[in-house]
Amino acid sequence: MKLAAAAAAAAVLLSACQVVSSSRPIRILGASSLQDVLPALASAYEADGGTPIQPSFNGSSQLRVQIEQGASADLFLSADAHTVDLLVAAGLGDGAGAPVAANRLALVVPATTNEAAAVTDWTQLATAGVRIVAAADEVPIARYADRLVAELARAGGAPTGFADAYAANVVSHEDNVRAVLAKVEIGEADAAFVYTTDAAVSDAVHVLDLPAGTGVSTTYWGLVLADASAAEAARDFLTWLAEAEAQAILAEHGFASVP
User: Fold this and answer.
1) Which CATH superfamily is domain 2-102+219-252 in?
2) Could you tell me the pTM of the whole model?
3) Interatomic CA distance for residues 84 and 60, integer angstroms
4) Residue ranges matching CATH 3.40.190.10 in the chain
5) Which one, out of 10, 25, 190, 211, has a CA that is 20 to 30 A from the CA of 129?
6) What are residue 172's phi and psi, to 5 degrees?
7) How far apart, in whole angstroms, are the C-alpha atoms of residue 13 and residue 18?
8) DSSP characters for 102-129?
9) Percentage of the chain surpassing pLDDT 90?
10) Residue 3, class by beta-carbon neighbours within 10 Å (0-12 exposed, 13-18 middle, 19+ buried)?
11) Which residues are bridge partners to 105 per DSSP?
């Protein structure tokens, strides 16, 4: 009897250390800036015996609206904590959210452009006629960019009225950060702020240096949704994202560990 009890206890302990596999995939709504790394994470997780991942991507704010309108999903991966907090406050989360990874902002310009129109220094963001593309106000990258612009306005060498001049040069507001990046890639914008991980996957943009002491860190958060049909598997995947294997994959794609 003692042997049987010990074997049963060992089996419970072993199962607690293994990833959970469900008969249906984990449906993930992910921030658009995760569309390169999430497939790599999914492959590694599935190779470990975890439940298959079924992702779709958009701006975090647009995904929040979809969830509020009843979108069928198990896990939400947001580019910020604020959007997750809104869902939790609305009773649409299964428990609290959890931090997943960190990122930073980069100032990008087209890799090839008309030299006369080229932006070669961050101070030129305040030059009249420069075309800046930003994200819509509710998109996380827009709030992060506003914080960075405020920092730059206080930096040495900043033109007088830098923040107002920057705002006056914004020619469009996009639904997500990848749409912002695309505008710069095809030359429809002279400059934009994106995540460093977005800049890293594009050969069509060039990253400009920012003044020492400036910069905005960002944190991605995950939330199991209240109506998740694969809630246990989703929680297991969210837990796995904090483990060494997942963090190494995130680092390979330019993300940092959560401070």
Assistant:
1) Periplasmic binding protein-like II (3.40.190.10)
2) 0.86
3) 9
4) 2-102+219-252, 103-217
5) 211
6) -160, 160
7) 9
8) EEEEEEEEESS--GGG---SGGGGGSTT
9) 87
10) exposed
11) 195
